[in-house]
Amino acid sequence: MSVIILLIIISIVVALGFLAIFIWAVKTGQFDDTVSPGIRILFDDKKPEPPKTKPENDKNPTS
Amino acid sequence: MAGKAGEDKVVCYHCGDLCTREHVVYDEKDFCCNGCKTVYEILSQNDLCTYYDLSQNPGINLKSKNFEDKYAFLDNDDIARLLFDFADSTRARITFFIPSIHCSSCIWLLENLYKLRQGINHNRVNFVRKELNVDFDPSVITLRQLVELLATLGYEPQISLEDNDKKQKKSINRSLYLKIGVAAFAFGNIMLLSFPEYFGFEGLDPGVQKFISYLNILLSLPVVFYCAGDYYRSAWSGLKNGIVNIDVPISIGIITLFLRSLYEVLIAGQPGYLDSLAGLLFFLLVGRWFQNFTYQGLSFERDYKSYFPLAIGRIENDTVVIVPVGDLKKGDRIRVRNREIIPADCILMSTRAAIDYSFVTGESNPVSRKVGDYIYAGGRQVGENIVLEVVKPVAQSYLTQLWNNETFSKSETGFEVLINRISKNFTIAVLVIAIAGFGFWAFSDLWIAMNAFTAVLIVACPCALSMATPFTLGSAMRIFGENKFYLKDASVIEKLHRIQHIVFDKTGTITFNQESDVSFHGHLSHDDLKKIKGLALNSTHPLSRAVASCIDSESDISELNNFEEISGKGLRGTFGSDEYRIGRIDFVINTSKKTGETPSGATVHVSKNEALVGHFTIENKYREGLHGIVERMEKKHFFSIITGDNASEGARLREIFGTHTTYRFNQSPQDKLDYVANLQKTEQVLMIGDGLNDSGALRQSDVGISITDDTAGFTPASDAIMTSSSLEKLPDFMDFSHISHRIIIAAFIISFLYNIIGISFALSGTLSPLVAAILMPLSSISVVVFATVTTNLMAKFKSLL
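Above: the input entities. Below: the structure tokens describing the complete assembly.
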């Protein structure tokens, strides 16, 4: 029977871990702005393409 | 890419506005003005044109923006220090409030600012709060340069010292999130651990059962002592003020639940009601979160400080020094430039000035003043620089004195929300039933009596009742928001429901602020009109603008010579051998006659070679849908029109608003406030206004709505902000406030039914933890579902969604 007690304790500890993560997330302000991160992730990092030359002609001329 | 919309309508590539005939073409793209083109140039040179790929025509129109050295005050270290979040010699951080942030392109551009200018390290946008956080190196780029860069791009930050106090706001919301999280954690785990109990597993070892019960108590401690804290505090402060608010029975319920459960677990060896307790708080907190929803990008609390400039040029030994306006003393001389706001009551030192008081008094035309005249604060100088001598410091000036009125210091009381009216009777009824139940059983069995007494208090805990209001009003508030009617908080809807009298301001509220009906009376050739337009375009005076916009042909300035603008009189210029003048009648022809006001609006006379050839009349343009508002609402509501303007528009107003409406003309801001206060002796008053001059009345009224063309602009403190295009929906909004009221009452009835069932269990002494665990969440959830679903269905039905 002590097995079930052990399991309960483990499950509570795991749940507490998630609660701690939630509290950390709130405290670091991750719930302050719920709109812009969703938009921000869709921005492409524009590759610094060399101006006025087609990519097919020269691959990585500088590096 | 979007350059064209429709066949011959050209829209600006940058801002999406319709291009007029004189639009600018650059890089094969159309722009409505030079401002927009400049922004495009800057962005294309810096390889930032992704801006235009993310949203269509994302830019902000720059036509009316003109800042020259408006931001010179940012070079003043004392002011700058107040604005920084953090600063040392090489690194500074500042948060700007930028109302014009509106789309994903904005976020992208503002976060790529560092590509535009050296010295900017890092920037981040908070879209919800419309804030930009910039980390920069003040030794490379000054604060002023940074703000000017933003303003050039159309993202003009709103800088006021007052906004800096708002930073604490954040933490309130965070603590609610934390409480919900903790309650959810406790609720989930306690419920999970109580499952054996629900299904009646008899085979469980008594030791394990005990362990589970103790664990439940442990888990419920943070719920009772942390999550429920706000309810105790609110109940206590209510009781101290002699009000039995809804939090009183909730607090009683929570405490009884906890104590009874402690007794059951520790002494009787029973499982207790801790699952219901945690669930109750979880649902309550979610309801609170739903109701606390606010429009963070809008400010409902602005006063004159956010309208007035932060700094002004003071003349010290013939040089102009920028000083904070708060430092102005009596006798100081200040220099006010074109479009700058006069911050304090002054005497005019320059020969003449034209002051635009439209935002303060509602009077739409600039008034001319001569040397020695007394000038009230709040007006804008139109035209050349002027010098003024300060008579009263800012805080004692005429306009700001309105804020010293007691209306602004008193906190809002006196309005009893529906739920609190009910809760008083409810609490008394519950206590009576509980005591009656106790009395009934006390003669036969004291234990059952105690049991019944506590069970009534537990099961009658009005959680479903207290959730009906937040979910109905929260949904209604979001529905209003969809229709561009933004409420400060959900209780405004309940106040709207009780409104009997509606007071409108005139200028800017029921008339258009910028547009006017301009018509020309007289005889002029097409060529002449072109020249008049050319003349008018040279001036920034609102009347000149109106005249220019009404002439629908290209301007002709090819031969314009000797252009002269005489402040308060008119414009003059020669084309070849012909002299044209537009303006006041005593200016355009040699006469001693004064410009007579036509029955409505202003008149601009035109002369050619000193012969009068005609005149333009400029009339207020009324918003559409006013007839509809009056027709639909006059049965149940009274109307008043109250304006700072003279009675010249009276006849037209009567045409629209009929004869039952009260009209008051020439009203000062204080008069408006007094008028509303007087009405309030017998009625609930809704005030709709737009300017600083209405701010007293807006504040005094039961509900104050400020009308604005652009929610990014300044709006005086009010209960709600409405975009002008939504004004015609006012009757729908009022109807919907009545509907929400009925929905709340229906939800109350449902939750009462649950309470009656629960109480009958409780009185018979048979409230098992299982019944409680089912009944309490079930009642909450069904009320929540009912409230949100019905509200949204009704909104669809009323075509508000």
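Note for the figure: Helices of chain A lie at 2-27, 36-40.
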